[in-house]
C-alpha cells in the first residue's frame, strides 16, 4: 500500500472527539495546532507567536534550549547553536560546543517544548500527529520515532506525510473539491527548502473519508527563504563594495564579535526588507557603518529572485509531469510554507503552469492543521454546507484568541495559574474573535455584516480568510450523506416522533429506511550549491572545530511514490549565521500572525471559501437575523422601529375597533400558513457572463430578482440578474473586475455587493457595488484585512481598524463618508471593536440559509447599530446619521462576547463570572439579568431570537457537546420558557417559535423543536427556513460540485411535501425565497418554482 494512504488509514479515527495535536516540525520553524473538544483549532503559542524557531542550543551544563531562547543564547556562542536540526536527519550526531549531540535529541528537545505548551493549554498531552517530508524513507522516519520516544510522547503518535496533511486542509478547510482520481500539487516553500509533491485522491476509507496518496515528489535543496535573502545581500554587496568597501568588508569578513553581530543584524534587516517588499514597492535596508540606508525596490527584488524562483517553477512542472498529469488537469495548486507569501511565487507559477495557485495569509499553518484533519475528521466531516450569502450588517475585525488556558474540566492537579503565559494573560481561547469573520474565523453565512478576515459572520460579511460564516462561501467539508432520492420520492418516511424525549447523543436518524452511503470526496541528491560571494564563511569566531554545516534536503529526480529510490542528500545551507553566528529568528511572514480560525468543529472556517458548520463561532448581534418576508414591495417606506411611536398612538383606536375580529381570525388562521407546495416546475436556464468554474459561485434573491455570480479561471467575476418568474435575463456584467479570489456576494435593496478575498501581498480587500437595475459599477473601495463592514439603512458602516473609527459610507452617493466616530479606547489604547446590527421580528421570519442568515432582510426597519468598544462599553448609533442615540454605558461586554441585538434589546452572554445572559434596553441601555446557569462552567452560545420576546440559545457544560441543551428564555421578564437536551447541538435557526437544531453528528442531522420545546422529528440532510412557519429540506448535504438533491417543503406541524430533485446543481450555491429556488449549475444558472 502507498505510504501516504497507509499512514492516513492508521490515523483515521485516532481521536474523533476531544483534544488532538498536529505538529509540523519544519526546517526553520515548528508549528503546532491544537484542536479542542468543541472543534476549534488554534495554534500553540511560543513566546506569543505561533511559530517556534527550530533552533537548539547546548549550554555549558549540557542542557538544550530551543526556539527564541536558543537563538538569543547562540548570538554569544554560535558554536553551541544548531539553527536547523532537521537538516541533519542523516547524521547520527551534531557537533555543538565540542560535544556530539545525537540528532534525535535535538529534535526531541523541540518536541518537548511543543509538549509543554500543549500540556499548559489542555492539562495533558493530547493524542498527536507529526508530519514529515514525502520523500523521507523508513530510516529518516525512524529518527523521528526515536525523537518522539525521547521526548516522552506515547508510541501511538502517528506520522503523516506533509503533502497529505496539506491536501486534507485544502479539501476540508478550504472546501476546494478534489474528486476521486484527481490530483493536487503541493508547493511547500519554506525558509530552508522547497518540497513539491503531487497528491492524488485515491478514493475513500470505509468511513467515507478521502484517502490521499503521494503520486510524485521532488524539490530543490538550495532554494528557500534564506536563499532569497542571500541573493538580495549579494545584490546590495555589488553596490556597497564600490561605494563603501570598508563597511562591506566588515560584513563579509567579520573578525570581532561586534562585527559578527552587525553582520547578523544586516541579514535580519535584509530579510525584513524582503518581507516588506511583498507589501510595498520600496523598502529601506540600514547598512552597519554607513550613514544612509540603502533602498530596495520591488522591481529589484523580483529581478534578483526571478531566476531562483523559476528553478522552483521548473521543478514543479517536472514533479507534476512525473505524476502523469498535466498542470491544467490538477484540482489545485496549493502553496504552503512561509516563503510562498512572496507574491512573485504565485504569479510565476500561474504564468508558467496555467493554473492559479491557492496561497493563504498564514501559509506556515495548513500542514499542522491538516494533520489533525487526517487523524480525526470532525463529525460531519464529509458533508459540504452551503456557501451562505452575506447578510447586510456589520463586520468587526477578529480578536487574537491564541492562548493557553486550562479548560474547564481539566485534571484538578493542573494549576490554572501555572497555565498562564509568562508574558501575561492572553485572551481566552474560547472567544472566536470579534469580527464581524472570516469572515473569516467563524460566524454563519454573511448577513448584514462582513467581518474582518477570519472573523465570524452574522449580519457581517466575513472578511477574508475565510469563507462566509460557518457555511461560508461554499467550502464546507464533506460528511457522510444520505443517499439521494429519486425525484418522485419523498424525503423519507414519516419522521419518528420523539416529542417527549430528549435527543440523546448518537440517536439514529429518523429515516431508518433510507440507505446511507459515503459521499466522495527515485530521488537523488543535488550537488551543493556554490556559495554566494555574500554568504558567510563556513565558521564564525566561536565555531567549534569540525562542526558540520547544516544542509538542505533536495529531491531532484521524481518517482511515482514517496519512496521510489535513494533518499535525498542535504547540500550546504545558505545561512548567513548558521555556522558563524545565530540567526535572529522572527516571524518568516513578517511580524506576529493570527491564525485563520477554523470556526467549526473539525476546522471549518467562517466565510472563507466556505467554512463548515460550527458551534464554536463567535456570535454578534446580527448573527441570526433573517430576511423580511418575500413579496413585500421594496419601495415601501418604513420608519425605523424606534421612531414609530407616533404612528402607534394614531393607530390605537383602530386597533381597539378591530381587536375582537383580529383575535378570532388569529385563532382560526395561522399568521404563516402552509405554502402552496408543488413539484419543481418552470425551469429557466440563464446564460452566465463568464464560464462557470469551481473558483467562486454564489446566488442571491431579492425583490423578484435572482442575482448569480461566478468567477472564471482568470478571476473575472461575472454577475447576471434575471427575473425569477420568467427567467428573463435583465442584465449581465463583468464590471466588478478581476481578483485572485472572490469571497462574498450579496444583494442589498440598492446595490449588489461583491467582496474579494484578502490579497496576500497587500493584506487588502476590494468591495465593489453594482447597480441592481443595470449591473453598472456604482463604486468600489479598498478595505484592509481587519476592517469590518455592516449594512444598515442606506449605509455601509466601515470599521476602520487602522484609524480606529467607524465611518458611515452612503450607498447611493458613491461611497461618500457621511459621518465618522472614533472607537472607544481601552486603558492600553486598544481600539478593538465589535459592531452589531439591530434586527426586528420581520428579519427572522423570511427565507434564510441553513445557518439562519437571511437572503433579503430589510435594512430600513431598524437602522440602529450597537458598538462595543475595547473598554467594554456599549453605545447605540443611528447608522443613517451617525448620531449616538444611547450610551455609552460602561461594563456591558467584551468585544468577543456572544451578542445579538434584536427587537429593541441587546442580548449578551457573559463570558466571565457566572456566565449569565443579560438584556440591555436600547433606549437607555439599562441591564436586566434574564438567565443564570446552574453551574459555573456552563457555556452559552448561538443566541437566536425565536419568537416575540423570546431568545433561544445552546448551553453546554464545559466543552462536552453531549451535554448540550437548547434553552428558550423570556426576553421581557427573564426565566426559562422551556429547555430540551439535544446532544451535539451545533446551531439553531428559528422558524417562528419553533427552532431547527443542527447537530454535529455523522451524518449531519437536524432536529425540529416546536414552540414548547418538544422534539417533533430528527432527520438527516439540510433544512432551512422559508418563513416563520415553513421549511425547505434537502435530502443530503449541500455540495460545491454538480449534484441532484431531492427537495421537500414542510409547514411546521404538517407532513413534508415532496417537490422532486434539482438536477446537476451546485447546491451549496443555491438561494431561495418562498416560491423559487435559484442555483448555479454545472455550466449555467437555473431558476425553478416550487410553491405559489
TrEMBL record:
It comes from Actinoplanes nipponensis. Belongs to the heat shock protein 70 family. It comes from the Bacteria. Residues 409-424, 518-527, 540-557, 596-616 have a biased composition (Low complexity). Residues 528-539 have a biased composition (Pro residues). One of its GO terms (molecular function) is ATP-dependent protein folding chaperone. SUPFAM superfamilies: Actin-like ATPase domain (SSF53067), Quinoprotein alcohol dehydrogenase-like (SSF50998). Residues 719-842 form the Pyrrolo-quinoline quinone repeat domain. The chain crosses the membrane at residues 646-669. Keywords: ATP-binding, Chaperone, Membrane, Nucleotide-binding, Stress response, Transmembrane, Transmembrane helix. Residues 383-440, 509-574, 596-632 are annotated as: Disordered. This is Pyrrolo-quinoline quinone repeat domain-containing protein. InterPro entries: ATPase_NBD (IPR043129), Heat_shock_70_CS (IPR018181), Hsp_70_fam (IPR013126), PQQ_rpt_dom (IPR002372), Quinoprotein_ADH-like_sf (IPR011047), WD40/YVTN_repeat-like_dom_sf (IPR015943).
